[in-house]
Amino acid sequence: MILSVGGNEVAITSPTCYLISIGVFVVLIRVILAFFKVWAMKDGEHRPDMDKPDPITNYSFKNLFWIGFTGLVGNANTRDYLLPAVIGFDHILGKIPFP
């Protein structure tokens, strides 16, 4: 696998480096999606009943980011148990062949 970074080509020839690069890519995607989830939670899009007050909307950005990134805390509408990240890692691993 050859990556082009700043005009320089970098070849990944080690299986360990290959797995680490896919892991880093998956974590970067997870971080980006967590930012979008924070903005959605701040707007209250996760609430099933808009009439009842929800304490999550009063959390700090850092706390909401942790809820969105980990996917293991919060109510049922904010948890995803990291399943999308695991599926994404497996999907990327299958789509990008190792040389």
Overview of this protein structure:
By secondary structure, the protein is mainly alpha-helical. It has one domain. Helix content is 52%, strand content 8%. Strands 1-2 form a two-stranded antiparallel ribbon. The longest helix is centred in the first third of the chain and has 28 residues. It is elongated. The protein starts with a strand and ends with a helix.
What is the C-alpha radius of gyration, as a whole number of Å? Answer: 18 Å
- Give the helices and strands as they follow along the chain: EEHHH
Q: What is the subunit organization of this protein?
A: single chain
Low-confidence blocks of residues = none
Described by the principal axes of the CA atoms, the overall outline is elongated
- Beta fraction: 5-15%
Main sheet strand line-up: 1-2
**Biggest β-sheet strands, sense, barrel:** 2 strands, antiparallel
List the domain count as a whole number: 1
Mean pLDDT: 78
Strand elements, count: 2
For the terminal residues, how far apart are their CA atoms? 6 Å
Helix content: 40-55%
Structural class: mainly alpha
Number of helices: 3
